[in-house]
Structure formats: structure tokens, C-alpha cells
Design a protein that fits this description.
Layout (H helix, E strand, L loop, with lengths): L2 H14 L13 E6 L6 H4 L7 E6 L6 H12 L5 E7 L9 H12 L13 H14 L7 E7 L6 E3 L2
Parallel strand pairs: 1-2, 1-3, 3-4
Antiparallel strand pairs: 4-5
The structure holds zinc ion.
The site of zinc ion has 7 residues, from loops.
Length: 161
């Protein structure tokens, strides 16, 4: 069975016990920016309930123009004021570099991506870089940022100083 068919079936179960509609603004006024890694279920991992937080995910959980776009909408239109960054150990973006990745895509497709993969070697360092990029953004109302790294081997999160 295709994955989407299993997902549509799972949704039947979900909708059967659906708790009802919630306000669009996140209850806890927080936005989480995290890697798309399949081993990080952000809601249980951070003690969040449905309706509590925005979760913005991309490869690496890096701060890109689109991350800033989402955070700006989150803060200006939907009232969030805290930002929590979640990188993690054993990230796919630690297994390449921007040049090698662009080479790989160009060799396979004939087109070199105009955007960088945003690879990194040290997750803590990249969290610090993400915090710096957020602090530099002129669009955010609040720059109350907490940076963390999740250990996929232990399930523990540590705060990046
Ligand atoms: Zn990752």
C-alpha cells in the first residue's frame, strides 16, 4: 500500500476522536524552528499540545529567508513572542557540504541549485549562527530566542549557551 493510503486511513481514526476547533493563534505564544529529521516528534518531545505552538521545519532547522518569513507572520499576525531552535545530533546536513551537495544535484539533474544546502559540522555552532541571524533580522517583534540541540541517541535536549 502506498504511504499516502495508510495516512488517509490513519486520518479516519484521528478524525473520529477529533477534539474540535481551536483558535488560530498558538496558545503558548511560541514558535519552534526545527530540523525535518524523522526522529524528532516535536510536540511530545517538547511537551506541547495541539494548538500550543507554531512548528517551522526544514532541513537542518536553519534560519533561511523562508524561516524569517514564517516567524514574521507568526509574530505579527499570530502573536508569538518566543522562539525555540531545535537542531540535533547525527543530522543529514553534517554528512555533506554546500559544494559537494550542489555538485551532486548538478550531476543528477544538470542544474546547479542557486541556494546553498546550509550544511554544518557542529550542531551547537550552527545553533549559535541561527541565533545570530535572528538577532540581525529587522522584521521580528521579539528576539527572545532559546537554542537547543536534541541528542537522537538519548532523547535529551541541551540548551546551547
Ligand atoms: Zn537534521
Amino acid at each position: 500500500m502506498a504511504e499516502y493510503e495508510q495516512m488517509l486511513a490513519a486520518n479516519e481514526e484521528w478524525a473520529r476522536d477529533f477534539a474540535g476547533q481551536l483558535p488560530v493563534a498558538p496558545k503558548r505564544k511560541v514558535a519552534v524552528v526545527a530540523c525535518m529529521d524523522s526522529r524528532m516528534p516535536l510536540f511530545p518531545l517538547l511537551g506541547l499540545a495541539v494548538g500550543d505552538a507554531h512548528v517551522i521545519r526544514n532541513a537542518g532547522g536553519v534560519v533561511t529567508d523562508d524561516t524569517i518569513r514564517s516567524l514574521t507572520i507568526s509574530q505579527h499576525l499570530l502573536g508569538t513572542r518566543e522562539i525555540v531552535l531545535v537542531h540535533h545530533t547525527d543530522c543529514g546536513l553534517q554528512k555533506t557540504d554546500d559544494e559537494s551537495f550542489a555538485d551532486l544535484v548538478e550531476q543528477a539533474t544538470g542544474v546547479r541549485p542557486p541556494w546553498p544546502a546550509r550544511a554544518f559540522t557542529d550542531a551547537d555552532d550552527d545553533v549559535r549562527e541561527s541565533i545570530r541571524l535572528l538577532q540581525e533580522s529587522p522584521f521580528l517583534l521579539s528576539k527572545d530566542v532559546c537554542g537547543t540541540v536534541y541528542d537522537v541517541a538519548t532523547g535529551r535536549l541541551h540548551r546551547v549557551a
